[in-house]
Amino acid sequence: EKFKNGLSKTRESFVSKMNDLVSRYRTVDEEFFEELEDLLISADVGVNTVMELIDDLRGEAKRQNIKDAKDIQPLISEKLAERLQKDDSENALNVKEDEMTVILFVGVNGVGKTTTIGKVAHRFKEEGKSVLLAAGDTFRAGAIEQLSVWGERVGVDTIKQQEGSDPAAVMYDAIQAAKSRQVDVLLCDTAGRLQNKVNLMKELEKVKRVISREIPDAPHEVLLVLDATTGQNALSQAKTFSEATDVSGIALTKLDGTAKGGIVLAIRQELDIPVKLVGLGEGMDDLQTFDAEQYVHGLFA
Ligand code: GDP
After folding, report:
1. 229: helix, coil or strand?
2. Cα-to-centroid distance, 149 and ligand 1 (Å)
3. What SS3 class is residue 272?
C-alpha cells in the first residue's frame, strides 16, 4: 500500500499519458510505438532500456497478433516486471547474524543520505537490533549535528568528532565503540563530495580500509543514496560512485516526490546495481525494501 501511495505521482502521470495515447491510436502501428517510446523516456526509464523494451513489445505484438492499442498496456507492465525481477534475492540487505554488520552510506549532499540512515537505524531497532551511528561526514557544515538529531529521534547513539576532523579517525572510534558495546549494526555516514573523483575514491578507500582492518569482511554493504527526483543526474552519480568504489546496492529516495519513477528501471538496467531500499516520504517509517512486483504494480495499476 505504501509503495503504491509513494508512486502515485508517477502512476497518475504515466496512466493519463498512456490513456491519451491509446485513445488517439486505436491500432498499434509504428507511430504508436514511437510515441510510447517518447512517453517512457520522459518518465526517466532510460533510453537504452526503453529501446530494448519497445523492440520487445513490437515482437510480442506481432507474435500475439495484437492490433488494439489498449491491449499493449498489460504487456508493458509484464515486460517491465520481467526485467526487474532478474534476481529479487539481491534486494535484501546483507545482514550478519553472528557478528556486527557494518553499512557504509555514500552519495552527494542533499539526496537524503542522513534521512535514510535514520530510517535504516529505526528499522533495525524495530527488529530488536542494537544500532550505532558514525558521523563520517565531517566536511559538510551541520552534517554531524543533523545525524545526531536523527539518532536521538530513533533512540540510537552517534559517534562523532569535530567538523573538519579526519573521517577515517571517526570510523576508527566508531568501530571501537561498536565493538566494546557489542552492537549489532554500525551505520556509517560519509562525505558526499563529488567534484574530484580521485579525492572521492581516496577518501572512501581510506574509510573502508580502517573498517576492514578492524572487521575483515566489512563493510558488508556500501549503499549509494540517490534522489529519484533528479532523474538522469542520479544515473550519472551512480556511474561516478561505482567507478570510485564497490557499490553493493542503491537506496533511492524521494520516490514519492517524482513523476519520473521510471529511474529505477534505468538504474537496474544500465548499471546492474540492485536497488535495495526506496524512500517514500520524510518520516522514519517511510522506507521500504525494493520489490519489483509491487513497484511495477504501483507504476501502472
Ligand atoms: P543529505 O544531505 O543527503 O543528508 O539529505 P537529507 O537527509 O538532509 O535530506 C534532504 C531533504 O530530503 C530533507 O528535507 C528530507 O526530509 C528529504 N527527504 C529525504 N528522503 C526523502 C524521501 O524519501 N521522500 C521525501 N519526500 N523527502 C525525503
Report:
1. helix
2. 14
3. coil
Contact, 118 vs 169, CB < 8 A? no
Residue 286 main-chain phi, psi, to 5 deg: -85, 55
pLDDT tens, residue by residue, 157-189: 999 999 999 999 999 999 999 999 999 999 999
pLDDT digit string (tens) for 208-250?
A: 999 999 999 999 999 999 999 998 889 889 989 998 899 999 9
Cα 271 to chain centroid distance, Å, stands at 12
Neighbours of 27 (CB within 10 A): 9
Q: Is residue 111 in contact with ligand 1, taking CB distance under 6 Å?
A: yes
36 in Cβ contact with 300 (< 8 Å): no
C-alpha cell at 125: 531497532
Neighbour-count burial of 36, counting CB atoms closer than 10 A to its CB (0-12 exposed, 13-18 middle, 19+ buried): buried
Q: Which residues contact 168 (CB under 8 A, 6 or more apart)?
A: 206, 207, 209, 210
Question: ipTM surpassing 0.90, yes or no?
Answer: yes
| Binding site residue list | 107-114, 189-193, 253-256
Please classify residue 96 by burial: count the beta carbons closer than 10 Å to its beta carbon, then call 0-12 exposed, 13-18 middle and 19+ buried. Answer: middle
CA–CA separation, 143 and 146 (whole Å): 5
Give the closest residue to 33 by CA, choosing from 65, 74, 61, 63: 61
**C-alpha 282 – ligand 1 centre gap (Å):** 6
In the reported structure, the alpha carbon of residue 111 is separated from the centroid of ligand 1 by a whole-number distance in angstroms of 6
Q: How many CA atoms lie within 13 A of 153 on its CB side?
A: 18
